[in-house]
Design brief:
Order of helices and strands of chain A: HEEHHHHEEHHHHHHEEHH
Shape of chain A: globular
Number of strands of chain B: 0
Distance between the termini of chain B: 16 Å
Number of strands of chain A: 6
Helix content of chain B: over 70%
Largest sheet of chain B: none
Number of helices of chain B: 3
Structural class of chain B: mainly alpha
Oligomer: heterodimer
Order of helices and strands of chain B: HHH
Largest sheet of chain A: 2 strands, antiparallel
Distance between the termini of chain A: 24 Å
Radius of gyration of chain B: 17 Å
Shape of chain B: elongated
Number of domains of chain B: 1
Chain lengths: ~350, ~80
């Protein structure tokens, strides 16, 4: 455990490094990607402007800079494990950004991102415990916990990837969901993992400046997968697995609705019937096609067509609501611990 | 229903997750005492815990699917 002074100094340092690295590097990345022609159309806008993609390399650089400094300051194995898992998720996403991969690729390849969490714990210890934090208490499951990590990491990555449907949604959503996660890690986890979580929050805040409506750059799979996997790795290393799931419920619901509709793992681009339609006034409306998959976006626009910005804010309101549910869960656990 | 309907749906998901978590803590975690009187090996206890946990998660997914069907019928008429 770190003392309060070190917690504040290290926290300020790693937060500032990640935040300013991304804030300052992103304009150059936008210019570079545009010059190289690495752009994709923004489908929900008039004239479909071409937007640079991916922002993943800059997000990874900002997070890695913060985490490397933190590791050098603390020599904590959990920090290194979170960094390596995030880097592997970034690499998987970058492959998917560079070439069209089949639907199974991301979930299967993301299994590799779970390896640092398991291997470094076996080698040096201190990455995760043998107990699953279940709010009402812990379940001591030393043998079951390892396979569980291989389930959590691909799901966390793909869940954030699947909610990256509109300008600013993935980054804004991660900002909101990370706040209760940070609180939970500080109370039930360790100081070092709490510090390791700060670069995720501040990287997302810095990136949101460029990703918010109207987006100047898209994260790409490399950006969304690294954000999702880092979130999952922090929940595991910070003994906050269930709190992490609760804060992520809108994205979990989106993935669940999609999978329950299509009944197999596929890329969204492979689904022929679209869940929403773009109207002449560039508002989004729910598809009436019975074959169209159910998604969070389709449900939000089911009652009335909405503009992209309005839908984004509605998703943020839902994220804020589930963040409150996560805080309620933290309060329940804290109360039970004190009994 | 607007966002209120979705918020109720998510509150339902939250309640179901907490219910499964409580079940796992109260009944599954101490199973070596409840079922085996601390006589079984760790592997056997873990196998039974895993089986029960998987059944609980399947029940959770089944419950969520039912909730989803009801909600989708109201919202999209599907």
């Amino acid at each position: 455990m770190l003392d309060v002074a070190n917690l504040l100094i290290y926290g300020a340092a790693v937060s500032a490094i990640s935040f300013f690295a991304i804030l300052l590097l992103m304009p150059a990345a936008i210019r570079s990607l545009a010059a190289k022609g690495r752009v994709v159309p923004d489908a929900h806008k008039r004239d479909k402007p071409m937007i640079p993609r991916p922002a993943g390399p800059v997000i990874m650089a900002g997070i890695a800079a913060g985490e490397i400094v933190l590791y050098l300051l603390t020599l904590n194995t959990a920090v290194l494990a979170v960094l390596l898992s995030t880097a592997i998720a970034f690499a998987v996403g970058y492959v998917d950004d560079s070439r069209v991969m089949p639907g199974w690729f991301k979930p299967v390849a993301l299994l590799a991102a779970a390896v640092p969490l398991v291997a470094l714990d076996l080698y040096a210890g201190g990455v995760h415990g043998d107990s699953l934090n279940l709010v009402f208490g812990s379940a001591f499951i030393p043998l079951l916990y390892i396979p569980l990590i291989f389930v959590i990491i691909p799901i966390a990555g793909n869940t954030i990837n699947s909610i990256d449907v509109l300008n600013g949604v993935a980054s804004g959503f991660i900002i909101i969901a990370t706040i209760p996660l940070l609180t939970s890690i500080l109370i039930f986890g360790s100081h070092e993992v709490f510090l390791a979580a700060l670069p995720l929050l501040f990287a997302a805040v810095a990136f949101y400046k460029y990703h918010k409506f109207p987006s100047r750059i898209f994260p790409g799979d490399s950006g969304t997968l690294l954000l999702g996997v880092m979130y999952g790795a922090l929940a595991i290393a910070g003994s906050s697995e269930i709190i992490g799931v609760i804060a992520l419920l809108p994205a979990v619901m989106n993935s669940f609705l999609f999978l329950a509709s299509v009944k197999r793992i596929v890329e969204h681009r492979q689904v022929k019937a679209r869940p929403t339609i773009l109207m002449d006034d560039f508002k989004l409306a729910a598809s009436t096609d019975k074959a169209a998959p159910a998604t969070l976006l389709r449900l939000i626009v089911a009652e009335e067509p909405l503009g992209e910005k309005e839908v984004g804010y509605k998703i943020f309101k839902l994220a804020a609501f589930t963040a409150l549910l996560a805080f309620a869960s933290i309060a329940i656990q804290y109360f039970i611990m004190r009994l | 229903m607007g966002l209120g309907g979705l918020a109720i749906f998510m509150a339902g998901m939250w309640a179901m997750i907490l219910a499964v978590a409580a079940f796992l803590v109260i009944f599954v975690a101490p199973i070596d005492v409840i079922m085996f009187d601390r006589q079984a090996g760790q592997l056997a206890v873990s196998a039974v815990q895993a089986a029960i946990a998987i059944i609980a998660v399947i029940a959770l997914v089944f419950g969520l699917s039912k909730m989803k069907r009801i909600y989708m019928q109201r919202k999209l008429g599907q």
